[in-house]
Design a protein that fits this description.
Elements (H helix, E strand, L loop, with lengths): L1 H14 L5 E5 L4 H13 L3 H6 L7 H16 L3 E5 L8
Parallel strand pairs: 1-2
Length: 90
């Protein structure tokens, strides 16, 4: 998974520079890749995101997640393709 983490990190940084990026995965679906991008951007452990383990009173963690979500949703230059719908890039 180190290669995937490294490549997603590169893709995220390139997309932040308003350059187009295509993420194509034969092994993971959209939700799994999005969770990895969210973990990288929010600096929150991936397992916590996958298991949905958050204390709603922990405002710092919730704030990090919301900021990361907003950042990812504003990156229009990331195009995602997945094995089960590889014709449908969006």
């Amino acid at each position: 998974m180190v290669k995937l983490h490294f490549s997603l990190n590169i893709a995220l940084n390139v997309a932040k520079q308003n350059k187009r990026v295509l993420i194509f995965s034969l092994e993971m679906g959209e939700e799994e890749l999005y969770n990895r991008l969210l973990a990288a951007e929010s600096e929150i452990e991936l397992k916590r995101i996958q298991r949905n383990r958050f204390d709603l009173n922990d405002k710092d963690t919730i704030n990090k997640l919301l900021i990361a979500r907003d950042t990812l949703s504003n990156l229009e230059s990331i195009y995602r393709c997945f094995s089960y719908t590889y014709y449908n890039c969006y």
